[in-house]
From TrEMBL, chain A:
One of its GO terms (cellular component) is nucleolus. Its main location: cytoplasm. This is Exosome complex component RRP45. The keyword Nucleus applies. Keywords: Cytoplasm, Exosome, Nucleus, RNA-binding, rRNA processing. It is found in: Cytoplasm; Nucleus, Nucleolus. Residues 32-164, 190-265 form the Exoribonuclease phosphorolytic domain. The keyword Oxidoreductase does not apply. GO terms for molecular function: mRNA 3'-UTR AU-rich region binding. It comes from Hyphodiscus hymeniophilus.
UniProtKB/TrEMBL annotation, chain B:
Residues 28-67 form the Exosome complex exonuclease Rrp40 N-terminal domain. One of its GO terms (biological process) is U4 snRNA 3'-end processing. The keyword RNA-binding applies. Keywords: Cytoplasm, Exosome, Nucleus, RNA-binding, rRNA processing. InterPro entries: Exosome_RNA_bind1/RRP40/RRP4, KH_dom_type_1, KH_dom_type_1_sf, NA-bd_OB-fold, RRP40_KH-I, Rrp40_N_euk, Rrp40_S1. This is Ribosomal RNA-processing protein 40. The lineage of its organism: Eukaryota, Fungi, Dikarya, Ascomycota, Pezizomycotina. It comes from Hyphodiscus hymeniophilus. It is found in: Cytoplasm; Nucleus, Nucleolus.
Amino acid sequence: MPRETAPSLNEKLFFQKALEENLRIDGRAFDQFRALELEFGDEYGVADVRLGKTRIHTHISAQVTAPLPEKPFDGLFTLTTELSPMASPAFEVSRPTPTELLLSRLLEKTIRRSQALDTESLCLLAGQKVWAVRADVHVLSHDGNLVDAASIAVIAALQHFRRPDVSVEGESVVVFGLEEREPVPLSMLHFPLCVTFSFYDLGGGAGEEEGEMRVLIDATSSEEMLRDGGCTVGMNRHGEVCQIAKLGGVPVDAVVLLNCIAVAGQKVREISDFVKGRLESDRKKRDKGGWMEELRAENDRVS
Amino acid sequence: MAVSMERFVLPGESLDAEYLPSHPTLPLKLGPGLRHIPPNTITPTVAGQLCSDKRKNAVWVEFNGGRYIPTVGDLVIATINRPSPEFYYASLSDYAPQATLPNLSFEGASRKTRPQLQPGALVYARVSLANKHMDPELECVSSSTGKSDGLGPLNGGMLFTISLGMARRLMLPRPAEQGRVVVLDEFGAAGVSFEIAVGRNGKLWVDSTSLKTTLAIGKAIQETDLKGLNPEEQKKLARKSMKDF
């Protein structure tokens, strides 16, 4: 059975002393994300996010099914997360860890329950046929901060995804292939992202005293192992908070928490702009210059 | 230098006799990564650079593998997991079987004066028993002389993870010439004082007077390892990181 990694005493003490001197082991500022990379696949709805050494692959797919009987006008949207032993030896097949539960739960709360995807627009025939959109989140490599990276991956992939066009005449639904008609993007209401804060209680501050708390964002896995508490804020670029999850850990002052939310808003705006830029450059790459160019029979062959 | 690196080998290929050293008196010594299949076939078991030493009549494969496999005589940095009446249970690498460190295998240790190690403490130890079917055993004292030879608990400092190949390069007798690692020499030449311990299990322990120096040295080694920097780039990196403190 794999044994959970535990940082040694020397690492713990060194980390604590470094925090007291306002240093981070990898040399970042306390409120700095690692290098964020986002790539889209050849297919629509495939996004690959890299946050330092953390890497997440997301694939969106859609198919036509019958709606739930209690919600005949709503399409379906499901989020599935998978943490395989490939991501880290701590994960075992078919034995969900708390990390995995937390990841799927927080994504569900942030993206699905906040109605980021307009499920009513996925309805084709009321009570009979709707689109079922499915987002598969695969964690390829785990080096901390899975929730933030996964939320970026899902939101980017959902914006990148195109579903096949359909025409509804009476009771019959015709689904056109991607070559027959231009596929249509999903209707999104807003783009929520998560920002996770890690709290470190340096002690010493008794009672009302403050300032002995350090708050880091985008913690690596070793920083996550040493933290005294964490808090995940899900919000969109307009500053609307979708969820706050603080599951146990050290008690945090309200002012610190409010400050976290302000920082989260700023980070979400930055990341949203980054995702938007990447989507735009991907669109340009795909755009061959209008229909006439695309329908040309000439080959690009070099003679 | 008697060591020659001749060719790149892949596991399972057959080695011609021309690549193996021959010596009039000494028997041929096979090092890590090679396997003898009787009567007279030698095949590599890993991918890497085939190296041979004519003087010692030895041949081995240099490779940068991911998983540490304990070998007798290796110096390692172990983390103590829990004590027991006879042993400390220590881990050499994550998700691997635990190694045992007998309570009395420290310099001058007796039942009354053995060191008390907390769970999570680091020790610099030598692998004294390594067997495919048994948990490895460690020692912090030379069994022949009774001296510690620098082995024992490591206090303070910081632990960094490096690749096994880098650990091996750092532990060569002359790392600058043989392993092309000059970054530590560069720090030393500038008058930075630090203490360092390299474990063959891919661990590097660094301690110095200030946190910034410790971090800078650890990160310089990690960066050299990760990006495969050549000596010139290592010197530049060392000078750049010394500006910070």
